[in-house]
Amino acid sequence: MQNLSSTLMLLAYGGLINLPEGGGAVQKFDDKAFDAVQTSGTYLPRLQLMTSNSEKCKGGEFPINNYALVSGESYTDVGKEVDLLIIAWRPKAMQIGEVILNCHDPEDPQFKQIVANSEKPDSGCMFGPEFLIYVPSKDKFATFLMGSKTARKEAPAVRALLQSAATLGSKKISTAKYTWYGPQCRPCSTPFTIPSNERILEELNKFNNPPKQEVEKAPETGTERAR
């Protein structure tokens, strides 16, 4: 019988693994390698403020008014405030249905139609500036679409910090009938390490040269759109 100290033993009922001493690292590859093969397609994750209107918040799966990095069906909590580097922006119109239609050319008739339809209740249409950002806490590039009426009002504050560090939080907004939360941006006071110019330029080149129209799989329903 082999010595258990030199043998990999799995006790399935307890999930316990005893690894041999001196056998090297348990896991050869790091989180970046996992992310490279876990995500599908060429889309960057998106940053999203998860308001009470989100289905995941309604179901208690995600904290209300926290930011999420969303990649496919994966939602990573990055907190109620998130520091980031704002790199660039582009126009975007989005129509959500069984699939998502993205347009980046304001002169495209489809773009104009989405803008017009965004005024209709439950149209699944939104538009606004989309920012290319870098989230240092996760060492990830992402996009941040400010596509609702509320978000578009705050967009100039984000644009004012282009190529600078910013902190995104949220603010309470109230009318006579409704109360909701929207994004709030301010300069970041906490130093962080930025990625290399090579990494930034690689993502910037892709961001600045999107196809006129893109079609992708629809995300969860119930994201904050109208306000």
Poorly predicted regions: 1-15, 220-226
Describe the sheet with the most strands: 7 strands, antiparallel
Number of helices: 5
* Rg (C-alpha, Å): 21 Å
Count of the domains: 1
Number of strand segments: 12
Mean of residue pLDDT values: 83
How do the helices and strands follow one another from N- to C-terminus? EEHEHEEEEHEEHEEHE
Globally, the shape reads globular
Strand content: 35-45%
User: Gap between N and C termini, in Å?
Assistant: 69 Å
> What structural category characterises the helix and strand content?
alpha+beta
Share in helix: 10-25%
Give a description of the structure.
- By secondary structure, the protein is α+β, with helices and mostly antiparallel strands.
- The chain has one domain.
- 19% of the residues lie in helices and 37% in strands.
- The strands form three sheets. Strands 6, 7, 8, 9, 10, 11 and 12 form a seven-stranded antiparallel β-sheet that branches. It has a three-stranded antiparallel β-sheet with strand order 3-4-5, with no helix packed on it.
- β4 and β5 form a beta hairpin.
- The protein is globular.
- It starts with 8 loop residues before the first strand and ends in a 10-residue tail after the last strand.
